[in-house]
Amino acid sequence: MSLILRLSRLATTLLIVTGTSAFAADAVKLQMYYPIAVGGKVSQTVDTLVADFEKTHPDIKIQPVYTGDYATTVTKALTAFRGGNAPQLAVIGDIEVYSLMDAGAILPVSDLANEPSDKAWIDGFYPAFLRHIDGKVWSIPFQRSTVVLYWNKQAFEKAGLDGETPPANWQQVVDFGKKLVIRDGDNVEQWGIEIPSTPNGYWNFQGIAATNGSHLDNGKGTAVTFNTPSTIEALQWLTDLGQKEGVSPKGTITWGTTPQDFIDGKTAMMVTTTGNLTTVRENVKFPFGVAMLPEKTQRGSPTGGGNLYIFKNTTPEQQKAAMEFIRWVSAPEQAARWSIATGYVATSPAAWETSAMKDYVKQVPQALVAREQLKYSQPELATYRSVQIQELLNRAIEAAVTQSKAPEQALEAAQKQADRLLKPYQ
Q1: CATH number of 146-303+379-425
Q2: What's the rounded Cα separation, in Å, for the pair 402 and 396?
Q3: Rounded distance, CA 182 to CA 180, Å?
Q4: Which candidate, 155, 156, 121, 162, places its Cα nearest to that of 140?
Q5: Among 227, 301, 307, 377, which residue has the fewest nearby CB atoms (within 10 Å)?
Q6: The predicted structure's pLDDT at residue 20
Q7: Are 194 and 262 in contact (CB under 8 A)?
Q8: Rounded to two decimals, what is the model's pTM?
């Protein structure tokens, strides 16, 4: 090879390398904290969405950092913020907005949405998924859910029940459950129902309390109402399922193992997030149904899941890039992709009108239940000092189901401690 040809190729190589380096240096870099809190291939789906975004937005690079459950994620994010090293973008529980505001850690998304079409974009989400605080919207719905009932149609039929008819109320949960329990001597091969009570028992419990007309907070983040008669009655019922009625395991039931118990046929019914729908659908060997939560006095469920937040330590360029990603990933096409891949609720009516979503619900009609339940849903328990307040209620639920305290006693103690924590905000 001639010297001139070798020099020419070397120059071309240097140009490519230099150009690539310049491009990489010019790209706006964002770090995104992400909670992995349920089963399934959530992280792979997030990685795919990020990669697809970067293909069409080569000037923006996003690094997802998987940070554990919701409580762990907000703790890590606030610690990083106070240390001057917060992510620019994060999916954090909708309920953490008061704590993030209190820390001065986040920017209101509605302040960054300055285009004429932005208000219409924000108003396009389901109202049940939006919080307006001080006249602002602080985050955008993404990984959202409600609490629903799953049931094994085959197990129902074997027990002499109608496989197409789930329990409609609390009493039927007990009546059906007694027929569904299968025992071999002292060993229980199949429980009637499992309702997780740990480590985040407050969320499922809020669903039960909601079906008895309860609200657990004042809607302003400054007070809780744990010790009302209807809430105490709800915790008594949850405790009685195991301790008195024998249709559920005694003591605590773990959030993470409940879906697998259902898949393995160890329980005929379970209460859990819509976010487990795809995991269940891909792994069960029997027909199953999804229903709204059985009611006592009314329909009800808390909304749940995470929203997209932008942190204050971002440059104007990073803010613009973060908004670009949020607009893209929450658009109807991506919201539909996300819902189909995970089971979380597509966050806007427009997402349900996409051809992909219409085809999906024809195959998986169970996905419609969470959407229909939104009209009966209430916001998830949200206060200042949210992690501590949630933990108070978690401990009260655990104390009741293990019978270390009576439900009324456990909730009264949680109420008094919560009142002390929230007094500075009242």
Answers
A1: 3.40.190.10
A2: 10
A3: 6
A4: 121
A5: 227
A6: 40
A7: yes
A8: 0.89
pLDDT the model gives residue 150: 98
The predicted pLDDT at position 7 comes to 39
* DSSP secondary structure string for all residues of 67-78: --SHHHHHHHHH
Give the integer Cα–Cα distance in Å for 133 and 80: 24
Burial class (CB in 10 A: 0-12, 13-18, 19+), 39: buried
Residues with Cβ within 8 Å of 36's Cβ and at least 6 positions away in sequence, in order, are: 42, 43, 66, 67, 68, 69
Q: Which secondary structure element, helix H or strand E, spans residue 409, and what is its range?
A: helix 407-422
CATH 3.40.190.10-classified regions of the chain: 3-145+305-375, 146-303+379-425
What pLDDT is attached to residue 40?
Answer: 52
- Helix (H) or strand (E) run with residue 140 in it: strand 140-152
Q: Give the relative orientation of helices 316-329 and 42-56 as an angle to the nearest 10 degrees.
A: 120
**3-145+305-375 placed in CATH 3.40.190.10:** yes
Q: How far is CA 144 from CA 161, 192, 218, in A?
A: 32, 28, 22
Residues of the chain with pLDDT under 50: 1-24
**Of the candidates 41, 66, 385, which has an alpha carbon nearest to the alpha carbon of residue 76?**
66
Digit-coded pLDDT (tens) for 198-252: 998 999 999 999 999 999 999 999 999 999 999 999 999 999 999 999 999 999 9
Give residue 180's identity as a one-letter amino acid code: L
